[in-house]
Amino acid sequence: MTILEWLPKESAYDYAYRVLLHNIVNLDLAPGSKVSLKELVDSFSVSRMPIREALNELSRIGLVNVLPQRGSYIAKIDVQLVEESRFMRLVLEIAVAKLACKGISEKYLEAMRENLKEYQEAVSAGDYGRSLALDNAFHQLMFLSIDKAWVYDNLKTQMIHFDRLRRLSIGIIEDKGESTLKDHEDILYAIERHDEEMAEMLVTRHLAHYQMDLTHLMEQYPDYFVLKKSETE
User: Structure pTM?
Assistant: First the structure.
């Protein structure tokens, strides 16, 4: 498990929540694995209460299963939630990309170009956690470029389930990082050309890759997934 540094003025609860979320999304806490409260207390150097509160909040958003008399478990990747997250992202990102094609400032175009360079470096170094963060940052820049920061913040909360699938695919599926980089380069090209039709096609193609990834990953890691929201451990 990765232990992050405390942020200035961060409460014990906020710290515990942030570190747990980071490890769940990056699969350092594997889907279906049991959570040891004692080990978390020792690792985080905080009391049990903020950790319990963080686990309860993560349970509320479907990332942890708190089972009476049995303990807490990292929730498996819910295929239905992944699909709904992808659908929400697709609808919003098509709209955002088309608005960006109407014209955005050079500041954001340059930031997106720089993001592509950093992403390539992260993929080449095998830094998959950073690759995922830079992937998200590229899409965030699209939202910021058209003054839709609030929309992105709300979408980000719903994307956590999809992010776990994406993190699992990076480094497992051959050339996954390179294909993501190529998609981002193409989307930026469409924005620079002010081509809304091309941008819509490219965003749709980019977010359709997950279906092939999902089939492959479910075959390789069957114990990591559930098919319905009603399924439990």
Answer: 0.80
